[in-house]
């Protein structure tokens, strides 16, 4: 496992993140504690150091299991959790990004995790009913109190992050250093606005669902492994199955698994994208870990890019096609400097 710094911070993180959404059986499809321990141990022995959980995952069991697993070695790991999601559907103030929910949620997460601080706290999803200034100021208070070291935002529009970090810079508050976003060969939407914004602002990205809920693992293209799956084959669009089949073909040619190809692709263009491995079994996780040693040939990356190509839409497509009209014929001889 290799490491790099996260966002604009000096925090060292491993290239693959361990996702623990399925730690615990409260939702009917997760892993029992003994299987969680096997996965955690394999990840740690491979050099992984980032554990991702959330207050709502398996109704709090995920955080409790993670806390028990890290135990006395807590400082060795980059421990991250999230807040926003409701833990009591009858109380409207147990959800959202406002100060009251933040304080309650973080205190409860710290108790379940058995620690007195979080390395990184994610805002779980954008809450349009809470002013971003309130969220930023409340988060900064937690950082100043030593309960949180770094901040990230999950599932959020690009303009919200750009505005938030501009406000933080202006007022001397703690900025966000990373984003957690859905990203895979089947879902490349973040390439429109979010990834260019992240690159410009120096934000790292933790990619959730890099295997598209198992579709890119070959479970529907190599076999019809619907048992225990959270989705059925009938719910998967034919285009997605075609892309998955291309991933299978590449995997066969390289002598690796489909999952490894799909995971390696997420980092092929940008090393500051960290796929989250949310395996439910030891065998799944060990297979995913092998992706860290896989470097896809450039022609293979291009092949997968073409198989999963999608329209960027307005204004990106319009800007690109208007390039010569805007800048003249010399545009064809201009090499853009990447930040």
TrEMBL record:
<dbReference type="InterPro" id="IPR036812">
    <property type="entry name" value="NAD(P)_OxRdtase_dom_sf"/>
</dbReference>
<dbReference type="Pfam" id="PF00248">
    <property type="entry name" value="Aldo_ket_red"/>
</dbReference>
<feature type="domain" description="NADP-dependent oxidoreductase">
    <location>
        <begin position="15"/>
        <end position="308"/>
    </location>
</feature>
<keyword id="KW-0560">Oxidoreductase</keyword>
<protein>
    <submittedName>
        <fullName>Aldo/keto reductase</fullName>
    </submittedName>
</protein>
<dbReference type="InterPro" id="IPR023210">
    <property type="entry name" value="NADP_OxRdtase_dom"/>
</dbReference>
<dbReference type="InterPro" id="IPR050523">
    <property type="entry name" value="AKR_Detox_Biosynth"/>
</dbReference>
